[in-house]
Amino acid sequence: MTGAGGMLGSDLLAVLGGQAGARVTVTTRADLDVTDAAAVKAAVAGHDLVVNAAGWTDVDRAEACEAEAAEVNGTAVANLATACAATGARLLHVSTDYVFAGDGREPYPEDHPTAPVNAYGRGKLAGEQAVARLLPGDGYVVRTAWLYGEHGRNFVTTMLRLAAERDTLEVVDDQHGQPTWSYALAGRLVALGDAALAGRAPAGIYHGTASGRTTWYGLARAVFGLRGLDPDRIRPTTSERFVRPAARPAFSVLRHDRWRLAGLPPMADWHEQLTEALSGDWPAPH
């Protein structure tokens, strides 16, 4: 597994640690340079399944450093896919909703045409295309979105921090998506990997997001409510008030049809996931 030091990677380690008899090799950015094809080839040798949780995740910085971001999110994925193809290993690669334009009105199916609106999305799409080209029968792409978790900087932890610093918060209410708990996604990735190794899951694209939908404003209110804080401290605003270097998709709601082909149900509703996530030892409310 690559990216073991990140938010999702940390949760993958926790899930895999509960699997009896699982033999897992983990690498962090310090252990493996995924842009080094020779190093990747050596690291993949002897493994049946490779989970790629590594990636360039700074969406705004990617606008100024597109070549570097594309190397990590695109070229490095091609390195992994090439190494897997050479040994017969399966590759499970984590991608993003940012491969879509975000101008839809209905949830995007897995085969919807892609049209990224920023540098980050273009790099991630290149990674997806590398998996499809090099591993048509053994490559799995799982697109996720609005990911949050205990082991990294994300929207939920930011809301909990800002709750202690400000009386009120303005949060955009015109971007729609599916907040997804990284621990829940980690469990789904492990289940998909098991199904892939058992020959029960067809290769291709899967959408790894929570069911249901909300806005960032709706998510912020839910976070406050679940922590016993006053949700009315959250005020709605528009994306125009928060201009960022990278354009954000306004609509990031995904369909989950292909899970049934792997014998797996769609992931739980976003509010159910959030409720379970915040029942743990997250930062105390203020």
Describe the structure.
- This protein is of the alpha/beta class and 286 residues long.
- The chain has a domain at 7-153 and 179-212 and 255-268: Rossmann fold (3-Layer(aba) Sandwich), CATH 3.40.50.720.
- The protein is built from nine helices and ten strands.
- The chain has helices at residues 7-17, 37-44, 59-64, 66-87, 119-134, 155-163, 182-197, 216-226, 270-277, and strands spanning 49-52, 90-96, 139-144, 147-148, 169-172, 176-177, 180-181, 204-207, 214-215, 234-237.
- Strands 1-2-3-8 form a four-stranded parallel β-sheet, sandwiched between helices.
- The longest helix is centred in the first third of the chain and has 22 residues, at 66-87.
- The model has no long low-confidence stretch (mean pLDDT 95).
Short overview:
With 286 residues, the protein is an alpha/beta fold. The protein has a domain at 7-153 and 179-212 and 255-268: Rossmann fold (3-Layer(aba) Sandwich), CATH 3.40.50.
Order the strands across the largest sheet as they lie in space: 1-2-3-8
Largest sheet: 4 strands, parallel
Oligomeric state of the chains present here: single chain
Q: Mean of the pLDDT scores?
A: 95
Q: Which second-level CATH architecture of the domain at 7-153 and 179-212 and 255-268 applies?
A: 3-Layer(aba) Sandwich
For the record, give the distance between the C-alpha atoms at the N and C termini, rounded to a whole number. Answer: 37 Å
Number of helices: 9
Q: What general form does the structure show?
A: globular
Q: How many E-type strands?
A: 10
Order of helices and strands: HHEHHEHEEHEEEHEEHEH
Which class do the helix and strand fractions yield?
alpha/beta
The residue ranges in which pLDDT falls below 50 over 5 or more consecutive positions are none
Based on CA atoms alone, the radius of gyration comes out at 19 Å
Helix content: 25-40%
Q: CATH fold name of the domain at 7-153 and 179-212 and 255-268, please?
A: Rossmann fold
Work out the strand percent: 5-15%
CATH class of the domain at 7-153 and 179-212 and 255-268: Alpha Beta
Classified in CATH, the superfamily of the domain at 7-153 and 179-212 and 255-268 is NAD(P)-binding Rossmann-like Domain
Domain RmlD-like substrate binding: 1-278
Pathway: Carbohydrate biosynthesis; dTDP-L-rhamnose biosynthesis
Keywords: NADP, Oxidoreductase
Organism: Polymorphospora rubra
